[in-house]
Design brief:
With about 90 residues, the protein is an alpha+beta fold. About 25% of the residues lie in helices and about 20% in strands. It has a four-stranded antiparallel beta sheet, with helices on one face. It starts with a strand and ends with a strand.
Length: about 90
């Protein structure tokens, strides 16, 4: 089965004040792809450092981060673009 979920809003950004928006968006996309609640997804830190992910592709003064980073988590391939788009492929 090849199921792909991509953010339709260019990448969700969490509330201001230090929330790890990129990590939250990844977990939400994985939950949608897996048809489950976000808390049913294994902790993201098992596959990638959430703080590093945020620094690399998070909002860094409006310019975005790296062009793209990919990793596997919970049986899915995850790609996060510097513009905040999250793509999850099974």
């Amino acid at each position: 089965m090849n199921r792909e979920q991509q953010s339709s809003d260019g990448g969700a950004r969490g509330p201001p004040g230090g929330t790890d928006a990129v990590s939250v968006a990844v977990v939400e996309r994985l939950a949608t792809a897996n048809e489950c609640e976000p808390d049913a997804i294994p902790p993201l830190y098992r596959s990638v450092d959430p703080d590093a992910l945020e620094r690399l592709v998070g909002d860094t003064g409006g310019g975005g981060g790296l062009a793209r980073i990919s990793f596997s988590h919970a049986g899915y391939d995850v790609t996060v673009s510097g513009d905040g788009r999250v793509t999850v492929t099974e």
